[in-house]
Amino acid sequence: MTSQGTSRATSQETLHGKVALVTGGSRGIGAATALRLAQEGADVAVGYVNGKEAAEEVVRAVEALGRRSVALRADSADAAEAAGVVAAAAEALGGLDILVNNAGVGLLGPLETLSLTDVDRVLAVNVRAVFLASQAAAARMPEGGRIITLGSCMAQRVPGPGGALYAMSKAALAGLTKALARELGERGITANLVLPGPIDTDMNPADGPFASGQAAMTALGRFGTAGEVASMVAYLAGATYVTGAEFAVDGGHAA
């Protein structure tokens, strides 16, 4: 399996001996991140809710790099499963050093069309699940653990109507990340937030019907790749003096 923009393994495996869990790891940014962390030396648990075959393909790709891997199904909309997948990953791979909160849902639409069911689901997946997974991970992580959460460029700039619910859910992650950094800092556990812009994935392809407008909103005038986001996640997984921070990987969307 190959992923968009994923670089080759580095000569120095900065994450050798570490165990990571990537939620929403069966495709797109999640799959690219799982492979990049494996290239850096980590064993990787791949969380998914749909797409079992795709998740298992990522597992095989990780194993082909000489790392251990396992696919774990968990629905982030379910509170018990959002936390439970962390315990399952730690049990399967013998611990947990890195949590990548990547699973999320995108729901855009006019304010008046959004139902209470829509609100509850988006907040459950994009906010509550991140909190619960981070809480469960912090209870298991040794000193020097890493919590890395994927947000959105729309938390910094909402370029048009229809994004109220989604932007609200992603903006909440900034406060959570800063609070986690303060609460866990004494243990050397860092918490950081990555804010992708328009990224070429099957959910939002660079040749899709709305792609040209999204690309035009960036300073670089193009979509990013999943591998470019994964590179930032890999950096934060190895960084020791970076915490409570937000990193835009958005091609200048917020510039």
Automatic annotation (TrEMBL):
This is SDR family oxidoreductase. Coiled coil: none annotated. The lineage of its organism: Bacteria, Bacillati, Actinomycetota, Actinomycetes, Kitasatosporales. Residues 18-202 form the Ketoreductase domain. It holds the Pfam family adh_short_C2. The keyword Secreted does not apply. Keywords: Oxidoreductase. Gene3D superfamilies: NAD(P)-binding Rossmann-like Domain. Belongs to the short-chain dehydrogenases/reductases (SDR) family. InterPro entries: KR_dom (IPR057326), NAD(P)-bd_dom_sf (IPR036291), SDR_fam (IPR002347).
